[in-house]
Amino acid sequence: MHRLLTHLIAVVLLLGHGSASAQGCVAIRSFTSCNPNAFTNGELIGKGWQVSMNYRYFESFRHFKGDHEETQRLEIGNEVWNYSTQLNLGLVYNLDRRNGVVFSLPYSYNVRSSEYEHRTTGNPSIRTRKSMRSMGIGDIRVSYTRWLWNPDSVSNGNVQVGVGVKLPTGNFAYRDFWYNVGPDTLGEYRPVDQSIQLGDGGLGFTVEVQGYRKLFGPVYGYLNAFYLINPMETNGTRTYRETISAVLANEDIMSVPDQYMARAGLNWNLSRKLGLNLFAGGRVEGIPVEDLIGGSGGFRRPGYVLSAEPGIDWMRGRHDVNISIPWALYRNRTQSVTDKEMEAQLGTPRHGDAAFADYTINLSWSVRFGGGDAH
After folding, report:
1. Helix, strand or coil for residue 217?
2. Closest to 98 (Cα-Cα) out of 56, 141, 51, 159
3. 195, 196, 291, 318: which has the fewest Cβ within 10 Å?
């Protein structure tokens, strides 16, 4: 029973480790959700360390206003493409079977291909497609987690809660070359788009919860939820959007938005001997229109994605590897605070757009150095 339970909870957490992540122009930062070791069963591991790595990749190119896809962008060829490669390093120290401290360090490499940010010399109305890049560490997160019930006294289910701090360690004013803009006809270095900035510049606070419950036989249910509270309103980084159009004057500085993620589903222990598990569920992740605490001004692209998330996990000894591919089922770029301000000022409808990905590739690996073993 302990062996089966260990397989299940390892899957749940490693998938939770994939967490919220950028989904295109809706700048959802890459953060791990809860303890990267929480579902490897503290009852068996006890005090000790665990190291985990999570690789994520996606391409965003489908533009939405609300939940309406602007298919003409692809037909015309002026869509924006974001290519994002992210690697998260997680380090966990289990104080005992119930309590742990988590350290998470994200690193990313992003490429943004667009037309509207680059103009052709001699005719400001004509644009040409160019690319900008960003690369480096993101915002580090440190959190404390605790199982609500003692693992010694429960076997069919448990819930873990966590609180943490998100540090502004990522560059939130990363610059690259904008072609054919500014006083120099060749162009100039400016901050890249918010969607590929490495950090948001704010000191944030996280709350999270995850749990599992045996349903029948080898089938368990799982749940993860994560919310990042960012009290700071703006970070001072200029967007230059007002140079694209005068009506975008209220979007000249980048916002520091909250973000959230929740996921739930079922896990089936396919083979205890081989250590194989299959899982499937749904997930939602996004940026809210308004923050829980503090102002919500400045430029942001609020929105959310609903996805189906199938995957497979392989566990052997102290090692655990899994892969999941969340497929987007529903995407919505919601109306921002600045959209509403411009709509009231101009007396005409205003709703900005954003590009979303079709799917995300998640690949995770973890190894335990605790005092116990899963087998």
Report:
1. coil
2. 159
3. 318
Tens digit of each residue's pLDDT (9 = 90 or more) over 23-56 = 556 655 554 443 333 343 443 456 889 999 999 9
The set of residues, in sequence order, having a beta carbon less than 8 Å from that of 135 and lying 6+ positions away, is 108, 109, 110, 198
Q: Which domains does the chain have, with CATH numbers?
A: 2-275+297-368 (2.40.128)
Closest to 283 measured CA to CA, from 223, 237, 342: 223
* 52-66 pLDDT per residue, tens: 999 999 999 999 999
Contact at 8 Å (CB) between 252 and 302?
no
Here the tokens at position 153 are 């006294």
Number of H helices, E strands in the chain: 5, 21
371 has pLDDT over 70 = no
Residue 56 contacts residue 114 (beta carbons within 8 Å): no
At 352, list the tokens.
Answer: 């900005």
Which residues are bridge partners to 182 per DSSP?
Answer: none
Q: Provide the sign of the torsion angle of the four alpha carbons 11, 16, 22, 26, taken in this order.
A: positive
| Euclidean distance between CA atoms 292 and 179, whole angstroms | 38
d(C-alpha 55, C-alpha 87), whole Å: 5
Q: Name 237's bridge partners.
A: none
Banded model confidence at residue 12, pLDDT cuts 50, 70, 90: very low
User: What type of residue sits at position 300?
Assistant: R
Q: Are 35 and 162 in contact (CB under 8 A)?
A: yes
Nearest to 195 by CA among 307, 352, 14: 352
In DSSP terms, which residues pair with 158 in a beta bridge?
212
Round to whole Å and give the CA distance between 160 and 206.
14
What's the length of the chain?
Answer: 375
Residues 6 or more apart from 356 whose CB is under 8 A from it?
23, 24, 25, 26, 60, 62, 63, 64, 303, 305, 328, 331, 333
**CA 297 to CA 254: how far, in whole Å?**
9
Structure tokens at 89: 């390093």
210 and 13 Cβ atoms separated by less than 8 Å: yes
pLDDT of 243 strictly over 90: no
Q: Name 72's Cβ contacts closer than 8 Å, sequence gap at least 6.
A: none
